[in-house]
């Protein structure tokens, strides 16, 4: 695994808890005001940030604090954060259960949109007013401002909706890569997915439709089922069916009108993943990118041996790190997704906007089932 | 999937039960004497064979009968069977639960060694006295003689023990392909496997040792544990441990002296497969080639997403069929394995030899746990 060497935003490491660090200094050089610089803050130097110094429930460990920003170096940018989603991975990171964990003190949030305020003298590919999003996880987006290396962010077009830009870098990228890199898909092929109403699921439906693929979309039963089915169909879903309906014998009739899936996308695990496997084509691939049910994927030996099904995983963070030596592929993917938004092929995600100081509302909602995506708005 | 077109030995097909055939004629053209040719049999024309006409328990469906052989055509061979193993897959085929099933009436047995008796006028790469083994599954090896296309068999060296030659075409080939084709293994790498005392497991230990690989071999606890450990170590096993010991915390000490496995070979499934996954290296591969526990492989989402583990299957029959258009690779593999036998790097498997008429003894034993491999001996 190739990790960046970056003096400000240190690369995250597994078992990062074993690192010894000065407790009140952030990896980007910013410091908590009230502890070390109380009375010295100015408008330029300080900003609000959601800070945590230990792992646990966010109610216990996350606090809104003033932190001092370091000076802007030659290769740096100063960025005003505009919006930052709250994702389940952010909550897991606070709890200390995610695969990578930042050193303490840490700022919460991995995803978000910022506007460039100030540009270091040696930075030639950014200017004040540009929109940017973080390249890597662990950026700490839940803050009003940040100073970082110019290479820690990539540009995103300003002529798309702010909420699209703020949520482009993780979920649509995950959908895009899984559809492009697995299953060797051609127009007319079929993709099956569970958790089809998730942010990734909705992006899969839309990007797949643009690629000429059929999608079979599995959702949980719920009171407003017809409304959700209609919504997903309006995004381009070929079929939307519940987990329960997928297990009925008559479901085999589906495959009279639509090819068996060459690719299955699983973010649930347990029985739900097993149900996907039962319908897949010979020689197909199941990609797991989440485990909402917190149960393993049960893979029958016969599916592996006689149906030659391949079971693997995808993690956007790792893909980005594998491509960190040359940002052109990441930039091209984000530019292509922005173009899809511009053409109306990738809709603005359904988000609940929450003012930054009301962050607890967003965190509470993110831990609830059937909740929409919540985004912290900094202005 | 490419299937051979062969007028005598028809390619097996999934759901072959739906094929309509004349009931008393075999796919190789031989016929059951007692039904159609009673009184016409001669030494040349007829032989004993273990025949079944429907699926079920072998006690109910398998019978020793006389069948008539067809004449030897220009491209054919007449072969005297010398020995034929009884494998679990043969039992599943009789039961009708295997992935491929021959048309009725069928002769049991997929693996075995034959000696060429008679050669068709257009066959130039075989002569009487040669030893041959079937290329494809479904050959029907549980019989005294057979007439087949010359391309339905490949040669095997006569200077290795008869039992090695009779058991070379399935289990050692499976071990060989899994070690060569998965995990991109280099000398010094580690392979972990369960069912390490199986015929495939023993071949894995020996072939891996020849490739400079370490092996961690998982077996079930049993009364004669030390004896079995010593035997597997004498074959070249680096470590032999029980399923129970693998789950103890102190097992992590193993990985101070030996690298974490890049490849896991699973023929059990269920918890046993899960235990293998827990110890694998980042980016490693688990290949499933059996499912003795009859339980799915439970794959945690974290193993797929954060450890980038790939879970797939291997089926020797399918590999052979994929390579049927050009037999050179199959022939080369068998020749290389025979050379390992000759050099003492691949031992004669522990087999119980059973006279052909006592076939029920061998079938009973094959369905029992902890039983050795049983081989029907035709002479």
TrEMBL record, chains A, B:
Family annotation (InterPro entries): ADH-like_C, ADH-like_N, ER, GroES-like_sf, Mito_Enoyl-ACP_Reductase, NAD(P)-bd_dom_sf
User: Which Gene3D superfamilies does the entry mention?
Assistant: Medium-chain alcohol dehydrogenases, catalytic domain (3.90.180.10), NAD(P)-binding Rossmann-like Domain (3.40.50.720)
> What's a single GO BP term from this record?
fatty acid biosynthetic process
- Which major enzyme category is it? oxidoreductase
Record localization = Mitochondrion
- Matching SUPFAM superfamilies: GroES-like, NAD(P)-binding Rossmann-fold domains
Which EC number(s) does UniProt give? 1.3.1.104
What are the GO MF terms of this UniProt record? enoyl-[acyl-carrier-protein] reductase (NADPH) activity
**Pfam families, from UniProt?**
ADH_N, ADH_zinc_N
Task: State the protein's name.
Answer: Enoyl-[acyl-carrier-protein] reductase, mitochondrial
Q: What is the lineage of its organism?
A: Eukaryota, Metazoa, Chordata, Craniata, Vertebrata
């Amino acid at each position: 695994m190739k990790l960046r060497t970056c003096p400000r935003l240190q690369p995250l490491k597994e078992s990062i808890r074993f690192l010894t660090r000065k407790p009140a200094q952030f990896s980007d050089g910013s410091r908590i005001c009230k502890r070390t610089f109380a009375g010295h803050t100015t408008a330029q130097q300080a900003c609000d940030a959601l800070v945590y110094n230990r792992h646990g429930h966010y109610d216990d460990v996350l606090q809104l604090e003033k932190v001092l920003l370091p000076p802007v170096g030659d290769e740096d940018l100063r960025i005003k954060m505009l919006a930052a989603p709250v994702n389940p991975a952010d909550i897991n990171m606070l709890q200390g259960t995610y695969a990578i964990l930042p050193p303490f003190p840490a700022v919460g949030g991995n995803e978000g949109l910022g506007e460039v305020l100030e540009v270091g003298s040696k930075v030639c590919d950014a200017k004040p007013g540009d929109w940017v999003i973080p390249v890597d996880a662990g950026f700490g987006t839940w803050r009003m401002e940040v100073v970082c290396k110019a290479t820690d962010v990539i540009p995103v077009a300003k002529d798309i909706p702010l909420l699209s830009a703020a949520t482009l870098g993780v979920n649509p990228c995950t959908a895009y890569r899984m559809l492009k890199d697995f299953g060797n898909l051609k127009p007319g092929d079929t993709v099956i997915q569970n958790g089809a109403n998730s942010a990734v699921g909705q992006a899969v439906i839309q990007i797949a439709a643009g690629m000429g693929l059929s999608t079979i979309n599995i959702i949980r039963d719920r009171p407003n089922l017809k409304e959700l089915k209609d919504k997903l169909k309006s995004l381009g879903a070929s079929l939307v069916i519940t987990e329960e309906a997928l297990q009925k014998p008559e479901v085999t009739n589906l495959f009279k009108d639509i090819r068996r899936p060459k690719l299955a996308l699983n973010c649930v695990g347990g029985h739900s993943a097993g149900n996907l496997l039962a319908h897949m084509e010979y020689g197909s691939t199941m990609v797991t990118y989440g485990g909402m049910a917190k149960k393993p994927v049960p893979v029958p030996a016969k599916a592996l041996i006689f149906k030659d099904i391949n079971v693997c995983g995808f993690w956007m963070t790792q893909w980005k790190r594998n491509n960190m030596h040359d940002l052109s592929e990441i930039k091209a993917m984000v530019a292509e997704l922005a173009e899809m938004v511009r053409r109306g092929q990738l809709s603005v995600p359904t988000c609940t906007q929450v003012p930054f100081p009301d962050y607890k509302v967003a965190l509470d909602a993110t831990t609830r089932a059937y909740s929409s995506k919540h985004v912290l708005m900094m202005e």
